[in-house]
Write a structure and sequence with these properties.
The protein is mainly alpha-helical. The protein has 2 domains: 91 residues, Tetratricopeptide repeat domain (Serine Threonine Protein Phosphatase 5, Tetratricopeptide repeat, Alpha Horseshoe); 55 residues, no CATH class. Helix content is 79%, strand content 0%. It contains 10 helices and no strands. It starts with a helix and ends in a 7-residue tail after the last helix. The C terminus is likely disordered.
Length: 179
């Protein structure tokens, strides 16, 4: 019975369909092996973005993403280098924001300030950026200005930022932060 079905199928399939099936039979396993090899190389986001930057070194976006991975790992100097390279390629607001935050966390507020301002001009409603700028203002002795940004963050922060929103409301105090 199976032989009869196979013979009937073979009679109905065209030569092009056999060629396509043969090509797929070879290509799919080859692509699976190539994918397996790449997955082994791209162990995490850091290795993925490092490879992407090696392939596309003039991408400010990829350099910013690599910088973020390096910063998360605690490689601040390498992260800073990636952010600065990204900014030399184009005025990437996310690179400004990331560099500003990195510099602020290192106590380099004077250097962070222009990057915060550049990022805020391009991304005026980005909650994390607004909160980080408020933190920067507070830690550099500008509490009144910080209150305005904390209140702004508290108004626009999505639910996933509830803990930060509560902290912002506490810091905002009388600057419209009691909602």
């Amino acid at each position: 019975m199976a032989a009869y079905g196979a013979a009937d199928l073979a009679a109905r399939v065209t030569r092009g369909q056999w060629l396509a099936a043969g090509t797929l039979a070879v290509a799919v396993p080859a692509l699976a092996l190539a994918t397996r090899a790449q997955v082994a190389v791209w162990r995490d986001s850091g290795t993925l973005f490092a490879r992407a930057v090696a392939v596309e070194p003039r991408s400010a976006f990829l350099r910013t993403a690599l910088g973020n991975c390096l910063a998360e790992r605690g490689s601040a100097a390498e992260a800073e280098s990636q952010y600065r390279t990204a900014l030399s390629l184009e005025r990437e607001p996310l690179a400004h924001a990331a560099l500003a935050t990195l510099l602020m966390r290192q106590g380099r507020g004077v250097e962070a300030e222009p990057h915060f301002l550049a990022a805020l001009r391009a991304l005026p409603n980005q909650p994390e950026l607004i909160f980080n700028y408020a933190e920067h203002l507070r830690t550099t002795g500008r509490a009144e200005q910080a209150r305005v940004y904390y209140a702004r963050f508290a108004r626009i922060a999505p639910e996933r930022h509830e803990a930060l929103r509560r902290a912002a409301l506490r810091y905002a105090g009388g600057a419209g932060g009691t909602q």
